[in-house]
Amino acid sequence: MTEAAQNLPLLLAGAKRWFDDALTASMRAAGEQPLSSAQGQVFAVLDPDGTTVSELARRLGVTRQTAHQAVHGLLALDLLEQIPDPASARSRLIRITPEGARVHRRAQATLTVIEEALADRIGTDAAAALRTALTLPRGEPPVVEAP
């Protein structure tokens, strides 16, 4: 029996999992507290002056509760802090702490090395083509009818 080819979303999810696993293992080996994938993604969408949890949720494409859980864990690790939002007395901004910035820089440097390891395995041309393909504009998601 022939196994059906995996669809692109499954392949992309598998590739992301490979990067997440490599980053987690590498950070743990370096003596850093491992973060969940969701916690790591928070750093990628934070504004330098701070971002509300609601805005983080929107940028991450998750519920406010999910974003709050990720942020709460990072607050407990002293990687993020809450400050009053000068634009709204009811809101608080989440921003990175100096320790969070240090960990984020280390994670970014580690990801660079992991990308180099991938390029060694699949070839530099394939890695460059993959990066190019994933950064091309895709436009709005299409609404299609199945045949």
Automatic annotation (TrEMBL):
<dbReference type="InterPro" id="IPR036388">
    <property type="entry name" value="WH-like_DNA-bd_sf"/>
</dbReference>
<dbReference type="InterPro" id="IPR039422">
    <property type="entry name" value="MarR/SlyA-like"/>
</dbReference>
<dbReference type="Pfam" id="PF12802">
    <property type="entry name" value="MarR_2"/>
</dbReference>
<dbReference type="GO" id="GO:0003700">
    <property type="term" value="F:DNA-binding transcription factor activity"/>
</dbReference>
<dbReference type="InterPro" id="IPR000835">
    <property type="entry name" value="HTH_MarR-typ"/>
</dbReference>
<dbReference type="GO" id="GO:0006950">
    <property type="term" value="P:response to stress"/>
</dbReference>
<feature type="domain" description="HTH marR-type">
    <location>
        <begin position="28"/>
        <end position="127"/>
    </location>
</feature>
<dbReference type="InterPro" id="IPR036390">
    <property type="entry name" value="WH_DNA-bd_sf"/>
</dbReference>
<protein>
    <submittedName>
        <fullName>MarR family transcriptional regulator</fullName>
    </submittedName>
</protein>
